[in-house]
Amino acid sequence: MTVIDRIAEAEALNDKLAGLDLAGRLSLVAGLGGRVVFTTSLGIEDQVISAEIGTHRLPIDIATLETGRLFAETLSLIEETEAQYDIHIQRFTPEKADIDAYAAKYGLNGFYESVEARHACCGVRKLKPLARALEGATIWITGLRRGQSANRAETPFAEYDAERHLVKVNPLADWDLEAIKAFVSDNGVPVNPLHARGYPSIGCEPCTRAIKPGEPERAGRWWWEQDEKRECGLHVAEEAAVIAAQ
């Protein structure tokens, strides 16, 4: 199948997903064949997806990037989620050699010093483990939502990821934060206690702060940088390409 065919396939899937509820979207994707992988950061939207996968016993692999710098609350939530839904969340960690090489070049916390150093850290701790998590996958499910940031405002339900040569599905693209919270409340979904402390978006501990009133959901991520569209490279092709080349 050519790239053009894969793009057309993703566009057709996007149209089908638009008319379904979340359970229907996930069930449709799970039945397409091939390996389907959902990568979770254990954020509130990702917890909604994990709950649906577990509740409906869908044949979707669940993976998380255990970067080595996560909050203790996030690590505890992994085990709590597995127990509640009788699922296995596979952990993918960075290679020690990559961490050592990064520290030798930039210092362990060198990501505060430059965007280049921060991208390099994300590359070692997130991009490389993600590549291993998605090996052999034909579909990658994420918790991206249009309301998370201006950079994600046009997020489709399905798109062809040219960097990774697979179809990327965002089943919560049209959900707002209030709908997410209502689902969590109505269904007893376990969530990270940091959300209640002003952390709507949670990543690595050194790179995440609580947001201030009126700030966008992702304002607390890499808060010392000035670029309002800052990302780690997982969901931005341009940054992923730069990181991969380092």
From TrEMBL:
Phosphoadenosine phosphosulphate reductase domain segment(s): 36-210
Cofactor note: Binds 1 [4Fe-4S] cluster per subunit.
GO molecular function: phosphoadenylyl-sulfate reductase (thioredoxin) activity
Protein transport is among the record's keywords: no
Tree of life domain: Bacteria
Keywords, in A-Z order: Cytoplasm, Iron, Iron-sulfur, Metal-binding, Oxidoreductase
Known pathway: Sulfur metabolism; hydrogen sulfide biosynthesis; sulfite from sulfate
HAMAP family: CysH
Function: Catalyzes the formation of sulfite from adenosine 5'-phosphosulfate (APS) using thioredoxin as an electron donor.
The family this protein is said to belong to: Belongs to the PAPS reductase family. CysH subfamily.
Name the UniProt record assigns to this protein: Adenosine 5'-phosphosulfate reductase
Organism, as annotated: Rhizobium croatiense
Lineage of producing organism: Bacteria, Pseudomonadati, Pseudomonadota, Alphaproteobacteria, Hyphomicrobiales
